[in-house]
Design brief:
The complex is a heterotetramer, with 2 copies of chain A and 2 copies of chain B. Chain A is built from 21 helices and 22 strands. Chain A is of the alpha/beta class. Chain A has 4 domains: 219 residues, Pyruvate-ferredoxin Oxidoreductase, domain 3 (3-Layer(aba) Sandwich); 187 residues, Rossmann fold (3-Layer(aba) Sandwich), CATH 3.40.50; 65 residues, no CATH class; 101 residues, Rossmann fold (3-Layer(aba) Sandwich), CATH 3.40.50. In chain A, the strands form 5 sheets. A 7-stranded mixed β-sheet of chain A has the order 11-10-12-13-15-14-20, with helices on both faces. A 6-stranded mixed β-sheet of chain A has the order 3-4-2-5-6-7, sandwiched between helices. A 4-stranded parallel β-sheet of chain A has the order 19-18-21-22, with helices on both faces. In chain A, helix 15 links the parallel strand 14 and strand 15. In chain A, helix 1 crosses helix 8, helix 5 packs across helix 9 and helix 12 runs parallel beside helix 13. Chain A is globular and about 85 Å long. Chain B is α/β, with parallel strands linked by helices. Chain B has 2 domains: 263 residues, 3-Layer(aba) Sandwich (Rossmann fold), CATH 3.40.50; 43 residues, no CATH class. Chain B is 26% helix and 19% strand. In chain B, the strands form 2 sheets. An 8-stranded mixed β-sheet of chain B has the order 2-1-3-4-6-5-11-7, with helices on both faces. A 3-stranded antiparallel β-sheet of chain B has the order 8-9-10. In chain B, a hairpin with a 4-residue loop joins strand 8 and strand 9. The longest helix of chain B is centred in the C-terminal third of the chain and has 16 residues. The chains are: A alpha/beta, B alpha/beta. At the C-D interface, strand 1, strand 2, helix 2, helix 4 and helix 9 of C face helix 1, strand 9, helix 10, helix 12 and helix 13 of D. Bound molecules: thiamine diphosphate (TPP) (2 copies), iron/sulfur cluster (SF4) (2 copies) and magnesium ion (2 copies). One iron/sulfur cluster binds next to loops of chain C. One thiamine diphosphate sits at the interface of chains B and D.
Chain lengths: 614, 353, 353, 614
């Protein structure tokens, strides 16, 4: 589609971060750059970075909002480690982001915002030359973005404030010029958004073009660049965040289960979106219930499962604590309910807007008694669709609560989603039990799933509850034999899930020197590192787990095919603990606890260290 | 099981042993519920009993219906899910004074204000039975129990007032030792469309024996029970006394006055006795009546019967209406539309050959 | 820091940035509290602010006092522990409509009924602010938010009525946009010995802007605010209207009537206006007043001021009295006695040589 | 003291279980036998077994209540595996307990209670000869206990019911006779209990003596036995349950910390006793607060800790789920609060009156984020005193929440407690910080414990909370550096506790073939098994952990001194998992999930299997 322009420098991949005050519209700017690049044909991956405050005082460090886009002519799997370009709309944004800009990277600042007052708010001393320490190693472009925007809009009959608000479009236009992007998709989007306010629409388009032309005109930018389209698998795509994909996945699961979806939840960052998203889908028969707390959220979901709905509840770490008692009830009553945990930084309220993988042991073990729950993890934003369906499928086919794990990075990050052929999705295999003659509440099929007879079914009346019971009849029974047997059955039932799993995929050779074993949002970084190490000729492969409980039956053999197993995690070694104890394999961890996604270069460096030790 | 067969009490009796203490008030409640259910014209399989934890909460095991013995204090949440998923069911919540007002107090409030269309039986024995005798939120101040050797400090909650203040559309009180009355109330609750909250005085003969003796004692029961009947004046003690509204200094207060033997329906001081109207939209009077005879008002008789029963759309009704509205506005959703929404782009086979 | 120094507002302002949205109603509350505290004659180090989670609950960080930003909905429990362990402290609970009435509703009830002697500031913005705009238990029915695109179904709770029904010994309402009034109420709460519950109307200009505009708007504020003053009749709208008790069919109802321009203190229909008495032991009238102007009663003005302020021993008082009683009965316990209690036996050195 | 009587057979150890209907007074009977044996000079250990129902219908299986006493002339550490004597007061008691009676054991039944009606209630067919299947392998004594009691009390002017209620004393008297026990301590106890009701007192004493004389008179019992007094360490003793010892331990800790004790709790089996026990101690300055739920219980405790009290909260497994969110707050605010978890059978409501060790992973990992909490476990009823003090000491000296683990077996079991010399108890080393000049809330001492300045201290005003913070100042800080640092500090602080621990005690040789590694209530059984295996000449030793987090620093070296490490647990391998993952030692589990305490003979058999494999 694109015609090559020999004046432009060709690049494979670029990472840009737009950052500024919460009020500066950076999320929107980033989203536009993303959409344009996606439509252009690049592979993309994004990661926004919100402040914990809703709208902290203007100009403060706490108020900085950022949006990062990685776009490429290759297939990419992360939002990028280091930045090629940093657009900083004020000193606070500069201060909190500058360290991520790579050697020789481009810094574009809105110089009008670098006032003494704003410098002070960002904690700089008034007459400090804040750029000086960087000028030797990066390329600094001070652009009077505000002033130029106002000038461009001179003739508009609008309040100055409203005009100034268009400055993000100026910045966007400028970056479009540098990276040779077309303006049309953003113009279309502006038209759909401001259709009813022609003045504002015009102003935004004017600012966008002004930015674009500014780049064209001045000589400051020696080069412009082009990132050709990627060799992307043919198909229809949309850009999607993890939380959106989870919501759609649940709706799809509801179709595959032929049961209405019920979600009982209580808002909490970063899971709230899923509830919000699903409340748009009433015309799909989705029932959303905003409960008084997390406990009521899962309680209502469990009730709806007993009543035969496809039941889910969504939360983040602190909410899991509150749901644990009910998760345990779902274990002993063997009811299908999916608990989606969108992990965030902890402990306690911790770092509510930052990413982390520190809930794994909590969802596996945070309950009294021996209480096995299957755990399924999504590895990227678009992967949430399939992972959510998989969680629901296991719940319904195996009659068990299931934990679905995602995290902030996946939840708010986005990437192109190759839309699935819906006819390939497999219906869930299960049935409501309706025959009183053959009914017993804890009678099981070959998967050890118990019979599911819902209230309203004549002749199958029965009571379930949290006390230990006798198998088959489900009658309360606290005897030694009953407890021993039921403990075993509950464990086996979960273990049996592994027998239905496909062979574990290995990225790379199935034997070698080093195996990266991962789960969750670290997928992209690990994959990128793996591919690059492979490209360097190293015998490195990757396995990324969809199922953490039960683990795939073939995992041990795969691991034993490598001299070294390395487990990168955004925690202090939670999957490591499980692997080490279960297989007595001396797996090493790469453990990062600094609120950031894993860095590819770090992974590569550490892998080489491990390889060097072999 | 076919609907044709006429249901009887025996249809609601489950197999196993009932395991409450001999003499426990819970037995009578169980029996009354089993007596009333077959008379309601609801097929047996449509009943679902949901409970929390406590002696009272063992109830579902003893009913031959669908049942769920959940966790402590949380029955309202599970029952809400059961009912929202299947509005056809007759869903009953069984809870205790600890389960429903201590650990579960918040769920009780929210279930009530949402008018979830659940039937709630709160067995009030003013003690934690299952954990063997600690004071509960309905225990009288100063009560000596295993955890309050010097008397409990907390001011008690009045379950009915609590329910009415939370917006109950139906609120009633009865006594486990008065099966006839209890059955009447159960029938009224079943007939109500909306959440029906019933406080049941229940004797725990092991840890709080006699808590409600004065309502049963031959010598005192006439003066301690104020039986409510719609459209009838609030009279008691063999119609010798009644309740009047006393606007003492604009302070609305219900007080007892003696019936003027000479003038029907009027007190000795010439006041009119209140006429009971459970359908009164305004909840103030029901709220005042609920406080009569409470622990902090031992002088007066306790109101027994339906204090309040008003119409209001249930949560499920509105939820379903919204779903219908959404379908009529947007059409029944198809997964295809959802997945393949407008912001898509297509990569062609030949793009970068 | 010595007590000698006279405290000023600046003493209560903490170092760092205040991070609420520009224009948020929370700023005014912060400023009022910082204004009032130095005037109370309480040493600075005796103040402790305990909050849950929410925009409102960031409050303690902005106060230069002892503070504890706890977890969502649970501030009353931590504050109860702080206060019971050190009854000398002036302990303030800061909470929001979601924090205090949704997830934390039960703790709010129990803290109040125990009369824990905490000062409770409930910032009511009728929305979940921190999680960016979902309906809360005080949002009006039908409210469209991110989780209720077709309008919320829940009937709202009235925080003040909730508090009064839970047994509040002190209950008041004020508006963050009316600092003078707010400061008066804060002072009254501080002076009250017992739990003091204050509902503060607070504008969330980002997610629920204008929720309380009618109480501030030049054109409407006179008719929408009913300012309460002890011993004064309940008049508003430039003393042209007032509240009377209407015993319509024995149904006590507060209604608005116009002031008879010719007869002082009497309505045009000849009714006497209610005279405000927060010290009224009976809570009924305060309960009725709390409902005035609530979301379900938008016709009437909302009562602003101290609705109720009555004396009652606090939980801590009784607890301490019990401890004293125990000591006086049994003597101050010694560990030796406890360990070496009567049921001991001694094994001698030479026993089984 | 005792004079040897040559007509009596000498025994080392005897295990008796009294069982009957909840209304039959079996707990009391057992307690009397215990006290008499203790005063006599035996070593003893007991374990009651309550039904889950308060008072299930008379005669039913659900209503059976039992009390087991192990008494011995040796030092013993368990309540016994198999029974030498079973006293069964009705058919239900017979049915649920008979399998525990050992080959050639003595069964005494109250034959009057074996009516058709009672047989039916116990699920027997009316005309079944229920004793027949056992008669070849046990010694059955059918005693008309009810009839004989009534006969003995013929002359008493009492209701028949009241007379019948004395039948437990008859049974007690009979067993006293068989085991040559004196009646005097029970007579004294009856006198103190029924002092004001002389009629009832006399009736009980009469029944007691009647039972004793009955044994003496009839010829049914060929032998009587004597269990001589044990070689017990000199000292003053009392019989104590675990829950009582915890309560006293907390009061002692309060003295050692010089701070009043605050307990915020919500009743739950089997932890309720502790709250009940402590509410007796108001004259010790103990504040007990029965909260509205578990959350409020720990919340109030944390508040009291902030205010400078010694703070504890008590619960069992289902309550831990509810407390987890607050436990996490205590981790990040670094406040001293002890969470006592008296474990019971799970999952969910599970088996509320049965014992299990299945909360270990929950207390270690059941929180979002990396959230380390020290864990201390008691190993026997009397050990609870020291373990409770140790938990409080760590909390206060290291400024951290601490979990104290016990379980049903310890909580309601009892044993003689050699009363400590109180002057040997060490005061806690810590100070409230009072100097504003040197104060910062997260400034730390060499143990990394932060400064503890309580509200009311002039000049030390500060705010703590659940958001991530910067060290020293404690200011909210969500930056990568702050989070990385604080994560490390929190982990190190807990790890540092190990540096203050004494050397780990090894029972037996410090090197050998097999090391039993245990924790909690399995102590007695493992110790007994270890000693018996050692007596057989096998190279078996035992380490029993007081501290599970952090583990003792010398543990690894000790374990590596053995060919095999075996970890017996009443769970599916929770400590095993930790040991295996941490040290990559192929520790084997002996895992029992049948509601019962570990059996010594089982342990010995399994140990021999493992030794055989070596
Ligand atoms: C989470 C949890 N906390 C505590 C308990 C222990 N518990 C069970 S029932 C109960 C109170 C029962 O009182 P109430 O609700 O009045 O019922 P009753 O037994 O009197 O009928 C308590 C505290 C529990 N099972 N689960
Ligand atoms: C256990 C838990 N659940 C949910 C949340 C997310 N959350 C934080 S604040 C809040 C609601 C805040 O509303 P409100 O109390 O009205 O305070 P506001 O922000 O409006 O002042 C929610 C749902 C949380 N932090 N913790
Ligand atoms: S303890 Fe009380 S409430 Fe519970 S079963 Fe026994 S008598 Fe009934
Ligand atoms: S979101 Fe609303 S309540 Fe929260 S700080 Fe902003 S304006 Fe205030
Ligand atoms: Mg009760
Ligand atoms: Mg709010």
């Amino acid at each position: 589609m694109a015609t090559k322009d020999q004046d432009k420098e060709q690049l494979h991949s670029v990472t840009i971060r737009f950052c500024g005050d919460s009020g500066d519209g950076m999320q929107l700017t980033g989203t536009q750059f993303t959409n344009t690049s996606a439509l252009f044909g690049n592979d993309i991956s994004t990661y926004p970075n919100f402040p914990a405050e809703i709208r902290a005082p203007q100009g403060t460090l706490a108020g900085v909002s950022g949006f990062q886009i990685h776009f490429s002519s290759n297939n990419i799997h992360t939002a990028g480690d280091e930045l090629d370009v940093l657009v900083a709309m004020n000193p606070a944004a500069f201060k909190t982001n500058i360290e991520d800009l790579k050697q020789n990277g481009i810094l574009i600042v809105n110089e009008d915002a670098f006032t003494p007052n704003n410098l002070k708010k960002a904690g700089y001393i008034d007459d400090e030359d804040i750029f000086a320490p960087y000028e030797s190693r990066i390329r600094v472009y001070k652009v009077p973005i505000t002033k130029m925007t106002l000038t461009a809009l001179e003739d508009f009959d609008m309040m100055a404030k409203a005009k100034e608000r268009c400055k993000n479009m100026f910045a966007l236009g400028l970056t479009y010029w540098i990276y040779s992007r077309p303006l049309d998709s953003t113009e279309e989007w502006l038209a759909s958004k401001f259709g009813k306010k022609p003045e504002i629409l015009e102003a935004n388009i004017k600012a966008l073009k002004a930015g674009y032309h500014f780049g064209n005109t001045i000589e400051a930018f020696q080069n412009t660049y082009e990132v050709p389209e990627a060799k992307i698998q043919p198909g229809t795509y949309r850009n999607i965040t993890g939380n959106q994909a989870v919501a759609i996945g649940f709706v799809a699961a509801s179709e595959l289960a032929k049961r209405p979806l019920f979600i009982g939840s209580y808002p909490i960052t970063p899971a709230t979106d899923i509830l919000q998203e699903l409340s748009k889908y009433k015309n799909y028969g989705v029932k959303t219930f905003q409960a008084e707390d997390e406990i009521a959220g899962i309680g209502s979901a469990i009730g709806s499962a007993f009543s035969g709905h496809l039941a889910v509840t969504t939360t983040s770490g602190p909410g899991i604590a509150l749901k644990s008692e009910f998760m345990n009830l779902a274990v002993i009553t063997e009811l299908p309910v999916v608990i989606a945990d969108i992990q965030r930084g902890g402990p306690s309220t911790g770092l509510p807007t930052k990413t982390e993988q520190t809930d794994l042991l909590q969802v596996l073990y945070g309950r009294n008694g021996e209480s096995p729950i299957p755990v399924v993890a999504a590895k990227s934003p678009s992967d949430c669709f399939e992972a959510a369906i998989e969680a629901c499928r296991i719940a319904v086919e195996h009659m068990t609560p299931v934990v679905f794990l995602s995290d902030t990075q996946i939840a708010i990050g986005s990437e192109p989603w190759k839309l699935p052929d819906l006819s390939n999705l497999k219906e869930f295999e299960y049935d409501f039990h309706k025959d009183p003659e053959t009914f017993a509440p804890y009678k099981r099929n070959e998967l050890l799933a118990r019979q599911w007879a819902v209230p309203g079914t004549p002749g199958c009346e029965h009571t379930i509850g949290g006390l230990e019971k006798e198998d088959i009849t489900g009658k309360v029974n606290l005897s030694p034999e009953a407890h021993e047997h039921m403990t075993k059955v509950r464990a086996e039932k979960v273990q049996l899930i592994a027998s239905k799993l496909p062979a574990t995929e290995v990225l790379g050779e199935s034997k070698g020197d080093l195996l990266f074993l991962g789960w969750g949002s670290t997928y992209g970084a690990i994959r990128t590192a793996t591919e690059q190490l492979q490209a360097e000729g190293l015998k490195v492969s990757q396995v990324h787990l969809r199922h953490i409980n039960p683990l795939p039956n073939d995992l041990e053999e795969i691991m034993r095919g490598f001299k070294q197993v390395v487990i990168p995690e955004l925690n202090l070694g939670q999957l490591s603990m499980i692997i080490r104890s279960k297989f007595l394999i001396d797996a090493k961890g790469i453990n990062q606890m600094n609120t950031k996604p894993l860095s590819v270069s770090d992974l590569m460096a550490k892998a080489k260290e491990f390889l060097g030790e072999l | 099981m076919t609907q044709a067969k006429e249901l009887t009490k025996a249809d609601f009796v489950s197999e196993g042993d009932v395991k409450w203490c001999p003499g426990c008030g819970d037995y009578a409640i169980l029996s009354s519920v089993q007596t009333v259910l077959p008379t309601l014209g609801i097929p047996k399989e449509k009943f679902c009993f949901v409970s929390g934890i406590g002696c009272s909460s063992r109830f579902p095991y003893y009913m031959d219906t669908y049942g769920f013995h959940t966790i402590h204090g949380r029955a309202p949440t599970v029952a809400s899910g059961v009912k929202l998923a299947n509005p056809d069911l007759s869903v009953w919540v069984v809870t205790g004074d600890g389960d429903g007002l201590s650990i579960g107090g918040n769920h009780t409030v929210h279930m009530i204000r949402r008018n979830m269309d659940l039937k709630v039986l709160l067995f009030n024995n003013r003690i934690y039975g299952l954990t063997k005798g600690q004071y509960s939120p309905t225990s009288e101040q100063g009560k000596v129990t295993k955890t309050s050797l010097y008397g409990s400090i907390d001011s008690p909650l009045n379950p009915l007032s609590f329910a009415i203040a939370s917006g109950a559309t139906f609120a009633a009180r009865t006594n486990a030792a008065n099966p006839k009355h209890m059955q009447e109330i159960l029938r009224a609750a079943a007939a109500h469309k909306g959440t029906a909250f019933i406080e049941i005085f229940q004797n725990c003969n092991i840890f709080n024996d006699g808590a409600f003796a004065k309502y049963l004692n031959k010598d005192t029961k006439a003066e301690e029970n104020l039986f409510l009947e719609e459209g009838k004046p609030l009279l008691f003690d063999g119609e010798t006394k009644g309740i009047v509204m006393n606007l003492d200094g604009n302070n609305p207060k219900l007080t007892v006055e003696e019936v003027d033997p000479d003038k029907a329906g009027v007190s000795k001081t010439g006041k009119k006795f209140l006429v009971h109207d459970p359908k009164n939209e305004d909840h103030t009077l029901a709220y005042l009546i609920s406080y009569l005879g409470s622990i902090s008002d031992p002088e007066n008789p306790a109101a027994m019967g339906v204090l309040r029963s008003v119409d209001k759309p249930t949560y499920g009704d509105v939820l379903n209406a919204q779903e219908e509205q959404a379908v009529s506005e947007k059409g029944k959703g198809s997964l295809k539309d959802l997945v393949y929404s407008k912001d898509t782009w297509t990569v062609k086979e030949t793009a970068n050959a």
